[in-house]
């Protein structure tokens, strides 16, 4: 089974960490572009590798 990775919706890098979690839901933070918010992208490692090679 493929590993799921969490990706920043702004810079498309897999540098998302959980910033805050609680009653109101989770908030994530990107260490690359300083995005903070509840929205992240999730995809499996193969898909991510494909997306990265498409954009370069
Ligand atoms: Zn980012």
Could you list some keywords that capture this structure?
single chain; 56 residues; alpha+beta; 3-stranded antiparallel beta sheet; two-stranded antiparallel ribbon; 1 helix; 5 strands; 41% strand; globular; binds zinc ion
Oligomer: single chain
Average pLDDT over all residues: 91
Task: Describe the global form.
Answer: globular
Low-confidence stretches: none
The main pleated sheet reads as:
3 strands, antiparallel
Number of strands: 5
Number of helices: 1
Tally of structural domains: 1
- State the secondary-structure class: alpha+beta
Taking the alpha carbons of the first and last residues, their distance comes to 27 Å
Report the sheet-strand fraction. Answer: 35-45%
Instruction: State the strand order across the main sheet.
Output: 2-3-4
Task: Summarize the helices and strands and which ones pair or pack.
Layout: E1 4-7, E2 16-22, E3 25-30, E4 36-37, E5 41-44, H1 45-55
This protein binds zinc ion.
Can you offer a commentary on this structure?
This protein is α+β, with helices and mostly antiparallel strands and 56 residues long. The chain has one domain. The chain contains 1 helix and 5 strands, in the order βββββα. The chain has one helix at residues 45-55; strands spanning 4-7, 16-22, 25-30, 36-37, 41-44. The strands form 2 sheets. It has a 3-stranded antiparallel beta sheet, with no helix packed on it. β2 and β3 (25-30) form a beta hairpin. The mean pLDDT is 91. Zinc ion binds next to loops. Zinc ion is lined by residues 8, 10-11, 13, 30, 32-33, 35.
């Amino acid at each position: 089974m493929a590993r799921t990775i969490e990706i920043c919706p702004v810079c498309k890098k897999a540098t998302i960490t959980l910033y805050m979690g609680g009653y109101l839901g989770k908030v994530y933070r990107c260490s690359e572009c300083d995005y903070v918010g509840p929205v992240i992208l999730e995809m499996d490692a193969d898909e991510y590798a494909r997306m990265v090679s498409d954009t370069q």
